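Morning!

As promised:
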Amino acid sequence: MSATPETLYDAIQEARSQYPTRRGAVLPALHLTQEAYGWLSPQALEACSDAIGYSPAYCQSVASFYDMFFLDPVGTHVIDICTNLACALRGAGELVTAFEHELGVGIGGTTADGTITLRKAECLGGCSWAPVVAVDERYREHVTPADVAKIVSDTRNATGARHA
Amino acid sequence: MPEWTPRLEASVLLDFEGDLRGIDAYEAYGGYAQLRRAQAGMDVDALVAELGGAALRGRGGAGFPTGRKASFLAPGAERYLVVNADESEPGSCKDRELLLRTPHALLEGVLIVSTVLKLTRAYIYIRGEYLTEAEVLEAAIAEARARGLVGSPDADGYAPEITVHRGAGAYICGEETALLASLNGFRGQPSAKPPFPAVSGAFERPTLLNNVETIATIPAILRKGAETYHELGTEQSGGTHVMSLSGHVVRPGNYEMPMSLTMGHLIETLGGGVPEGRSLKAVIPGGASSPILGPEALDILCAPEALAAAGTMAGSAGVMVIDDTTCIVQLALRTAEFYAHESCGKCTPCREGTRWIVDTLRRIEDGIAAAAEIDLVLQICDNVEGKCLCPLGDACAMPVRSMVKRFREEFEAHVELGSCPLHDTSVLSTLYPQPRSLLPLLTVSPA
């Protein structure tokens, strides 16, 4: 069901049918747009605006509220390390260091080949399986520094884009 | 998929091993029988009486009686049910397990409530990060639709509908007015009440808003009978709660247990206690926003009223265990950083106060704060708590204040030593490396 720039308009119309107001479908429309374009570029926001009927500025003003919408380019894949309390108590800080070393970039950075963006996340809701790392929103649980190299190589070798 | 904790004797909601993800498994377990009962003619008063008799209280954190909430829903031609699956309180991960293991229990609860109240549509607002969980829900809805449970008119011509609505990463959207703003297509900022959601909520129509666990428990209550369910818990908090146990324990996990048991039962008997060679230092009993307790927590009942009497709260039942190697200043700092990040920026005390709490705690952790800055933290907390539109400001001020008050000598040791006394042992130190050389930059004197 993943949207492409070609199917985006129709996908957004379908989402609209589930809401009594046009505005209610703004968040689903932004999700679909990011899926189609990888990030919410000015061009992507134009396409979202065309399909949902709110201005690109309005779409951007909603998107900028949320952590999961990218208003700047990101890597093909995104690795989120949860560093909130439950994960921090079980060694999330060491994972941050391990991922930074393995990828050669700091938090917020993207590898030179553009494949992976590394981020710190607030609580992902996996506290009892801490520490948790989300690779393109797929959770890895009880992650240790020893797992980092394999997670990175699996992510690099993954075919297709996020959420595909 | 994570490993699940084994079934416990008192389990009601998680009274099975493994998962009941498929509709066949759920029906074989007795699922959807209560929906058929509701379809056969259960009226609002009967449902409200069952929920009241069970003493079911909301499982999202506020603990409001569920039956009473349902009875408040204003009349109208278009009315909605919104399920809060935005589980984001640090320490809480129970809804995730329910969504993954027994999605049909939630759907059956949604369908029962929708059918009895004749609601136009149900929206399940699920946090954006729960992508797998949203897919599991979508698959379960498709199965229910194929069996005619969703989207097909019943004898009265009523056809329930369910939409999974994904959030996009904002803690504040777990707060009801922010969630509704987000669902309505605005930035997820809270607003003043009234109007209450029961009058004007989703799409400005009367809306019933409940947590995942609350709704998923309804079929189990109807199956067991309100009295039987109530008796499992305490007088004021009926039945069982799913408690999320995390932090420094041998067996973290989600444990469903009656509220008549102690924190000690959860942490030591079920969770195996703190790892060998360590000792218990503190317990955060109800998610990151709840005031911290010392080892005395073990003797306190898990019931909301018992935790309230101990000066803290049960919140969303996320219990985090902290051992003696951990620095409480780092813990306070990490807590405050979270709330500063998640402040929506609408109210000044929260937007500014949370950042000032972070900055001041960071100075204490770095060993560059003056002694007076410990009281400054408390003063900022006073200027935040109770002065904001929504509970986020309180959620930052309450735990930080409790950490300063309960472990004040540790804050003072940072100031006296000029560095973190637990830096070598505390697992949070990797997040807060000590500065090599920093001189006190300012002299702050709280007025």
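Chain A has seven helices and four strands.

Hope this helps with the figure draft.
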